[in-house]
TrEMBL record:
The keyword Zinc does not apply. Keywords: Transferase. Pfam families: ketoacyl-synt, Ketoacyl-synt_C. Residues 2-311 form the Ketosynthase family 3 (KS3) domain. InterPro entries: Ketoacyl_synth_C, Ketoacyl_synth_N, PKS_Beta-ketoAc_synthase_dom, PKS_NRPS_Biosynth_Enz, Thiolase-like. It comes from Mycobacterium gordonae. GO terms for molecular function: fatty acid synthase activity. This is Beta-ketoacyl synthase. GO terms for biological process: fatty acid biosynthetic process. Gene3D superfamilies: 3.40.47.10. It comes from the Bacteria.
Amino acid sequence: MTDPVVVAGLAVETPGGIDTPAALWQALCDQRELLSPFPRDRGWPIDDLLSVSGAEGWGRVPDSGGFLSGAAKFDPPFFGITHREALVMHPQQRVAMRVAWRALENAGVNPASVEGDFGGCYVGMSMTEYGTRTAVADEYSGHRAVGMGQLGGAGRISHGLGLTGPSMCVDSACGSSLTALQLAVNAIATDECEWALAGAVCVLGSPAAFFEFAKLHALSEDGHCRAYSEDATGTVWGEGAGMLLLERESRARQLGHRIYGRILAARTNHNGKGKPILVPRVHAQEQVVRKTLDAAGIDPAAVGMIEGHGT
C-alpha cells in the first residue's frame, strides 16, 4: 500500500477519571484496575439487581463495573445544543461528541475549522435504556427521535462540526469499534471521504446488561475481570469511549499532522451457524486473522503484539 490510512489523532474517556491517551497509557503501565461499585446516583434499582444472585437459575451479580464518573456532564451551548434537547440526549451521545472534539485537537486540528469538510464519522454504539418512557406526550416530545436513537451518535458529531461526508452508527456488539474503524478506512481508501472520525462509545443508561449477563451466568463471581487467565470466572460490564482521526498518510504529512500508526488492513467476519449466537468460533477467528494478514502483506511471524477482547 503506497498511501495507507494513518491514525493522526486520538482521544479517550475511561473509568478512573481518565480523559487523555497519556493517562490511559500510564494506567496500563501501572496495571491499575479501574473498577468500582455500581453508581448510586443514576436511579438504578441496585437492591433488585444484587438480589438476583440468590435466585434459582441466575448467576451471581457482583457490585462491580467500570463506570465513567463524568458521563452526565455536558456543556450544551458549547456544542450548539439547547438545554431541553440535551436533557433527552443519551449520555453516549454527549461522551461521543466530547471525544470527537478532542481527537481533532489531538491531531492539531481546530474543530471550528472543519465546517464543510468532506469528513466522515463512524461510531460504534449499542443502544441502552435511558430516561423515562418514550411513548408519552410531554415537553420532550420531538427531541427523543435523535436524542434516544442510534443515529444521534454519529449524526450529532457530523452536524455539530459541519461535516459533509458519510455519517453512521454501527452495532456489532463487542466488535463495534473495529467495525466502525474498518468502514472508515474503506471509505477513505475509496475516496468516499477525505478523512474520518472513527471510534465507539458505551455508557450504560440502565443496569439491563447486568441482568442479562447474570441470567447467562457470564458475570464474574468476585467482580474482577481476568481475561485469558486460568482463574477467570466471568466478565464485568464497563463504560468508555475512544475516537481516532484517520486520513491518508500523504494528507497527514502535507498538513503536518502527527502519525501514530499506519492501518495496513482491516477485515471483519461472522461465526456463521453452529454454536449459539454469542459464542465465538475458533475457525472463524483464525479465518479473519489470516485474511487480514494477507490483505496487509504481513508475515504472521512478524506480528509483535495481538490485542484481544476477552469477555
